[in-house]
Amino acid sequence: MTMPQRMVPLLEQYDFARKRLADRLAGPVVNSGNGTDVPVGPMTDDEYLWEPVAGCWSVRRHADGPGSRATLLVGAGDWGRDTAPAPHPVPPPFTTLAWRLCHLTEMLALRADHTGGTRSLTRDDFEVAGDAASALAAFEAAADAWRKVLVDTDDAALDTVGHSAYPYGSDPENPFIDIVWWVNQELLHHGAEIALLRDLHHYRAGWSSTP
Question: Is 5-54+96-204 a CATH 1.20.120 domain?
Fold first, then answer.
């Protein structure tokens, strides 16, 4: 199948943002944006779970219960992600790197399923990672699954309202091309947040050449 021409720049943007985030998390280098490779060490469990301020939302063991202002831990397995039903707390709780990466991974995995898979997975089916290595592996698997959806999408599907049946967004009411755009901006803005949290964690102990 020939990829629709209007999908090409969106896929290129997705691939760029995905690689930049993966490199920023795992190293050994990340492109600075001007063609220079900056050394980057792999994310540690301490960074992954670091709570830079009081009252963070994060990922926690189900046995320990939710954190401050959260009412439940969502996710399968031993770990869950802090959340609360709408209306959400105001001001919004600060979220850790673990929370943001798991949220992003969950979104990619579930959207892939609700577009090209079983169309049945819920947040309760998503296995939340409790350590950095597992979180990185889960992100790569989810990013691959979403990319396959993009590559397999034909021109008619891009205009189809509800082509993605993802139940935690506006997908059932929007043409699929709008959802593709939205996922790209989610990847870009959460990737930037995650990169900043890595920098802040590193500066706490003094900068080195391999954050």
Answer: yes
